[in-house]
Amino acid sequence: MNTNTIAAKIDDAFRKKFLLPREKVVTDFLADIMNPQYPFRKDSVKIEVLNVFYEALSPLSFIFAAPSYDHYDQDKTIRFAELDLEADHSFEYYTYIDVDDLCIQVLDENQVDYSGDLDEDEELDPAEYWENQLDLEVDFLVHCWKKAKERTQSQMLGFLESADNTGKIYDLDTGEELDGYVDEYLQSKGRFIKKEIE
Fold this sequence. Notes:
Blueprint: H1 3-19, H2 23-33, E1 49-54, E2 62-67, E3 81-84, H3 96-109, H4 133-152, E4 157-162, E5 170-171, H5 182-188
Parallel strand pairs: 1-4
Antiparallel strand pairs: 1-2, 2-3, 4-5
Helix pairs in contact: 1-3, 1-4, 2-4
């Protein structure tokens, strides 16, 4: 069996085990924060752009959102929207060990001989066969964002990024990866959002 076929099978198993069970909860959270009355601030400034953050080491364990730091004065933000999938909804965090175990399970189920890929400790680095985790998680969050927008008919714009600022920034409406700042990206798309800060 070729590597692409195995990667597709691991993709499918990852979606079924880790993503699909979380879809409703994540979509509900995103729909809630699209409400113009969501209490990010005390004043009545209309929030048109949100930053949505994920934990770098475990993207679907904890998600939080706030008005865009490129457009709004963060000193006026009084509340972040937070979704803790374990504490609030009883989803156990999945770790890289859980993901590695899933990869090995799929390899075993498909009788893939990976004995030649074991390290000196007789451990397998599943990256030899699969490196799609972050792409699938980003795609999943984009999918949930689109479902939330469809449900609410919101015009809110959202940008996804790692909470530790080490990852890339993604447009949640398109899944597109940004090359520069959010404001520059929006202007290149013909969108001019009034900025509260310079």
